[in-house]
Amino acid sequence: MIRSWSPVVARERVAEETFWLEFDAPEIAEQAAPGQFVMVGFGASSWGTPFLPRPNSVAAAPDGRVGLLIRVYGAGSRRISELALGERVLLLGPLGTRFELGDARNVLCIAGGVGLAPFLLLPRWLDRQGREANLRLLYGERVGAVVFNPEKIQEIAGIEADIWTEDGSRGSRGTVLDGTGLDGADLVLSCGPTAMLKAVRSLARTAGVPCQLAVEEHMACGMGTCIGCAIPTIDPETGEDVYSLVCTEGPVFAAERLRW
Ligand SMILES: Cc1cc2nc3c(=O)[nH]c(=O)nc-3n(C[C@H](O)[C@H](O)[C@H](O)COP(=O)(O)OP(=O)(O)OC[C@H]3O[C@@H](n4cnc5c(N)ncnc54)[C@H](O)[C@@H]3O)c2cc1C
Fold first, then answer.
1. Residue bearing the CA closest to ligand 1, atom 10
2. 65-71 and 211-214 strand pairing
3. Which CATH number fits domain 106-214: 3.30.1340.10, 3.20.20.10, 3.40.50.300, 3.40.50.80?
4. Is the predicted pLDDT of residue 24 greater than 90, yes or no?
5. Does ligand 1 have an atom closer than 6 angstroms to the CB of 244?
6. pLDDT tens, position by position, 80-107
7. Ligand 1 near 180 CB (within 6 A)
8. What is the spatial distance between Cα 220 and Cα 228, in angstroms, rounded to a whole number?
9. pTM value surpassing 0.90
10. Under CATH, domain 2-95 is a member of which superfamily?
């Protein structure tokens, strides 16, 4: 785990309340894998918002940079989205578990909202590992105004996204699950709102396809100390009900481990 005061080297508004930021953080960029995240903080000595760091998925790692896709929800994400070029933040990472592809050949990636972030990293990361897999990316948003530009997705990830919006103003009309044909997929990976993850899990379970889900939970430390991000899970060995920490045992979990 690396702790680095890292300057913003690129910042772009990419959709309504949605920003793309890159930080100069070579050691984190070199180690980060899809599904892992960084805590973005401002240091305890700075008076102001946010006091606690905020978790964000590593969405790209080109040329020693860490790319983040930030959507504004509250004060913390707003502060991050408003960072100026050259301004430094305290990055801690890479943290958490990653998607495990094993020997899967046909991988269906289902992203909701900024749950897109880990799938922006995945294709180039696989290339770097010398690993081949056919990736299909479904990306859903509620409305077209917040859709991350498809050309930018292509530029960052080298992959085309099949876009779905509920208002039908970009891509196909419907939820991302309306585009989900599991035929041929031997692994399903998903990241996004909990309701979507639950639906993905039941689709994959019905089809008998292994599924991994990246879960979001509020957290204060990102490394297992504060125990703020405990969620109910099932122990894979004993089958007992237990709690797991999203920061260290997740954020990526095998779907069957989640006790929803
Ligand atoms: C492992 C992990 C990876 C993440 N990756 C990303 C990422 O790549 N990009 C990104 O933009 N966010 C990501 N998040 C979510 C991000 O950490 C939160 O959006 C952020 O902590 C919000 O902080 P805030 O101070 O802006 O909002 P808060 O003041 O903490 O919350 C403001 C309001 O927004 C709600 N809210 C907060 N987060 C969310 C959310 N994610 N969805 C819906 N409502 C929310 C809160 O319940 C509250 O009502 C990730 C979270 C985790 C745990």
1. 70
2. unpaired
3. 3.40.50.80
4. yes
5. no
6. 999 999 999 999 999 999 999 999 999 9
7. no
8. 7
9. yes
10. Translation factors (2.40.30.10)
